[in-house]
Design a protein that fits this description.
By secondary structure, the protein is an alpha+beta fold. Helices cover about 40% and strands about 10% of the residues. β6 (about 210) and β7 (about 215-220) form a beta hairpin. Bound molecules: protoporphyrin IX containing FE.
Length: about 220
Amino acid sequence: MPSGLTVAEASELRSRDPATYLERARASIADHVRGMLEYVRAGSYVFDYGNNLRGEAQQAGVEEAFSYPGFVPAYIRSLFCRGIGPFRWAVLSGDPGDIAAIDEMLRIDDPFLVNRRVTTAETPIAGVVLEPETRVYLNWTSANRDEAVFGDPDAYRPEEHARHNLVYGTGIHACPGRPLATMELAAVTRTLLESTTHLDLAADAESERETYPLGGWRRVPVRLR
Ligand code: HEM
């Protein structure tokens, strides 16, 4: 949100004049990043948590914006690479069959819908060549339900579909939280199945879908027996 505006003023400007809104928001981001750079100069530890503040500030003319790191390369990746800190438990996720089952449930109704990317080189994909600097909208949900790859997208075939599953992304930015998420989801699913004999949708309460940018269900009331 551009600085100096109330929420109501920002909302009004956004509907009336989106281009000016974006320009003012970017100028505010640039001021924010200049402030962060002052902290760098004063000797503090400074990092970006993945909202692309540095990228926006650079576009607004802050040339040194990338002189401090993003959170993932600075702190997270090295922990995963060495299996230390809270991440050492992630390898205990257990039976490989559980992993395929959890991945397949998530593939059918993906909770993580999209990522944005900018190509850094000419990129041929599906018969189209994207120029460098093309903005790309990666739709994981759609990729995970591609009939050309999976046939019937609703068919539950964990082992067969595992190698095409893109729930956690792919390449250098593939989700480092995957083992932890899998372990938690497998534990919840196993406990639920082991401690109940019947699981029915609650007759008197509505289920609710999540809304963009999240996928899957926000709320599914059930009756356990
Ligand atoms: C069901 C749960 C989860 C799903 C479906 C999921 C999915 C994803 C996807 C699709 C990406 C993007 C991959 C890409 O950009 O190419 C991602 C990135 C990431 N995820 Fe997850 N994730 C989940 C849980 C977690 C958990 C539990 C953590 C942390 C403990 C986590 C931490 C991260 C981080 C730090 C990144 C950024 C990696 C990078 O940019 O290099 N995720 N995740």
